Amino acid sequence: MKGIRVLEPGLLTTVQDLGRWGHQQYGIPVAGAMDHLSLQIANLLVGNARDEACLEITLLGPKLMFEVDTVIAITGADLKPKLNGVAIDGWRGIPVERGSILEFGPIRSGCRGYLAVAGGFDLPVVMGSRSTYLRGKLGGFEGRALKKGDHLPFRRYDLDLNGFFPKWYFTQPQYPKKKEIRVVRGPQAEMFTDEGIKTFFNSEYEVTPASDRMGYRLKGPKIEHRDGSDIISDGIPFGGIQVPSDGMPIVLMADRQTTGGYAKIGTVISVDLPLIAQSKPGDIFRFIEVTVEEAQELYLEMERVLASLEKYQLKF
Q1: Looking at the domain assignment, is residue 240 inside a domain?
Q2: 8 A C-beta contact, residue 288 and residue 182
Q3: Are 80 and 57 found together in one domain?
Q4: Whole-angstrom Cα distance, residue 254 to residue 162?
Q5: Domain of life of the organism in this record (predicted)?
Q6: What is the pLDDT of residues 166-199, one digit of tens each?
Q7: How many angstroms from the chain centroid is the CA of residue 245?
Q8: Domain region containing 46
Q9: Cα 161 to Cα 165: distance, rounded to the nearest angstrom
Q10: Residue 209: helix, strand or coil by DSSP?
Q11: Which helix (H) or strand (E) covers residue 299, if one does?
Q12: At residue 203, does pLDDT exceed 90?
């Protein structure tokens, strides 16, 4: 089948959707997009369902050749995309003719970009998802990051590029070096001293190079426990913030383990997870406490916006 030919793979390019839900009790991580908002908007811009699989591009983009006419959208980080050598905008639907070459320049802002194609990729569904779980070599394209020479077929390749395209688009967001990240208190917050809680909410923490799709390790002022960091292992949500014995927080992300044995001081709210996903080593976080009710209302507002875009999107 026709699709994309990988000429150069980039630093880390994987197939991701919204994740492999319903299998954590068997030790299967959710995986999926680190920046779920950017992935959903990319899909809506090309007429796909919000949970369709996209390419997640990390820091250094790939070079791709299209074997068929299609429509693409690139969201997330500003990766300076070029189509046949000409700069194109992100955050909008772009028609692409057969034989075109898409490549990317040095990253300007953010960390991860998302490339959606109309109709999505014709790849196997594994446990309800096309997401790549790298450590388990599961899903996506052969359970791994893309390599030179790979071929990713499309599920649809009969588009008429003389048709209509979405009139709406988004302004490329900027991802500042310093970010305020909202959290609710975690299930083991009582395991930290009052001073430890104060330190967590009144300090700046730097993203370290030991950060990846599994979690972001941070460094900064030590967070004090009352009597050790160990707990009986329990479930870990996306954005859960563990604090092991060294007092340095770890924000667990898309490829997080299903359970963990360190006390969790807080959980990043859903609408701020994309800010962490778009962060690089050297970026700075300051954590802001919000209530569960505030977090829920912010999530519902994000869902209302996405649902309104979905309602009015054009199908190709």
Answers
A1: yes
A2: yes
A3: yes
A4: 38
A5: Bacteria
A6: 556 788 898 999 999 999 999 999 999 999 999 9
A7: 28
A8: 3-172
A9: 9
A10: strand
A11: helix 292-312
A12: yes
Distance CA 29, CA 31 (A): 6
210, 162: one domain: no
- Clarify whether residues 37 and 183 are in a common domain: no
Inter-residue contact 142 to 111 (CB < 8 Å): no
The total of other beta-carbon atoms located within 10 Å of residue 124's CB is 9
pTM (predicted TM-score): 0.95
Q: Residue 262: helix, strand or coil by DSSP?
A: strand
Q: Is 133 helix (H, G, I), strand (E, B) or coil?
A: strand
Residue 304, classed as helix, strand or coil, is helix
Averaged pLDDT for residues 193-222: 98
- Whose tokens are 């089948």? That residue is 1
Task: Say which residue, 18 or 158, is predicted with more confidence.
Answer: 18
Q: Are residues 102 and 234 in the same domain?
A: no
Among 105, 138, 172, the domain boundary falls at 172
**Average pLDDT rounded to a whole number, residues 230-255:** 97
Written as six digits, the tokens of 179 are: 């970010």
Q: Which of 173, 59, 60, 33 is nearest to 116 (CA)?
A: 33
Q: Are residues 57 and 132 in the same domain?
A: yes
Enclosing H/E stretch for 250? strand 250-252
Give the DSSP letter of residue 144. Answer: B
Report which residue type is found at 271: V
User: How do beta strands 178-185 and 284-289 pair?
Assistant: parallel
Q: What angle do CA 8, 117, 10 make, to 5 degrees?
A: 20
Mean pLDDT taken over the chain: 94
**Domain CATH number, residue 288:** 2.40.100.10
